Amino acid sequence: MKITGLVVRNIRFPTSKTLAGSDAMHPCPDYSAAYVTLKTNSPSGLEGHGLTFTSGRGTEVVVAAIQAFKTIVVGRSLESIVGDFRSFWRSLASEGQLRWIGPEKGAIHLATSAIVNAVWDLYAKAENKPLWKLLVDMTPEQIVGLIDFRYITDVLTPEESIEILSRNRATRAERESELMRQGYPAYTTSAGWLGYSDEKLRTLCREGLSAGWTQFKLKVGAELDDDVRRAGIIREEIGWDRKLMMDANEVWDVNTAISWMKELTRFKPWWIEEPTSPDDVLGHAAIAPIAVATGEQCQNRVIFKQLFQLNAIRFCQIDACRLGGVNEVLAVLLMAAKFGVPVCPHAGGVGLCEYVQHFAMFDYISVSASLENRVVEYIDHLHEHFKHPVVMKHGRYMPPQAPGFSIEMRPQSLDEYEFPSGKAWQQWNRTVSAIP
Ligand SMILES: [Mg+2]
Description:
This protein is an alpha/beta fold and about 425 residues long. It has 18 helices and 12 strands. It has helices spanning about 60-70, 70-75, 80-85, 85-95, 105-125, 130-135, 140-145, 160-165, 170-180, 200-210, 225-240, 255-265, 280-285, 300-310, 325-340, 350-370, 410-415, 425-430; strands spanning about 5-10, 30-40, 50-55, 185-190, 215-220, 245, 270-275, 290-295, 315, 375-380, 390-395, 395.
């Protein structure tokens, strides 16, 4: 099967109208995506779909970066790519000229992930399996063949990776059937957006509890008094036995993070997420006596490597399209296993829940073999736009069944929310200034 074309679209949802998604760093995001479709010559019209999550303005920059990769992808056969996936990944991440505008970070790496994930969607559909199952059915050697170990062999070699992947292999069928029955644990971020009123926070906590949620996240970091009041409200509503996470979205300096969290520890946060710059590895290590979680903006496997080396994070929050797609995520899952750090994927946005559930399932079945201290983020926005949205039962992700990566959006949604021509944007007549 040959990839005959790549189409990329700028898809935006005007979520800033309701302040859904608001936090200390992003007060009014429009959840968006640079959305890739790979066309093929398959007689059945098979397509690969992938997206990179963005936050509104700037999506056009990622769209342009994806266009710049077009010639590397179009014309290739799927077989030649997946036959040596490591080399394909490196041909994008280390492209001789494009690398300069990264390397392996920022808009160009977001573009890499949209393309890489679209190839994986196509691959899984061609194999007639959901992505997690495709990965679970691979041998340890095949998984290792997907990963570019450049820059990480000082902490993780291909041989060690095979050892990690072989460790619990004999019992993986048990874990797979357990997931099919019970799903993978999740927590909700939907109640605690920073822009929500106290009353709305309270109502959403009650709704969350009655929907079966037992773990809640609160956005913090703008005003300490507000955080104290809101943390009090959420504890009043959910009690002290349920887990409460806090998320500052990178708003603090290192010393501010330490002093601010001193005031909030009495609310028993399970973790503080993104307390400071995602690049500040030593800063995270300084904050680390408090349980730190980070990763949604950690730009590549090198940053994760250093966070692990310095024991700077208690929870590893991989993102499906901040790293360079499936292949690089696998490298981080294996490093996390080596260092004994639980992986709690970042989700939400648009499509991130659909994406990361596959990694959580694979991690449990084939890598960590443990659910202890592991939980996937869940946010109840925008799932209706996907052909195969996540299925949640009693606050748990049920394993996706449809072939592919669950990321294909409905054609009507793509047309309606394409920026700026889609009906949604025409209709609501919003003033959104695109970067020229
Ligand atoms: Mg977060």
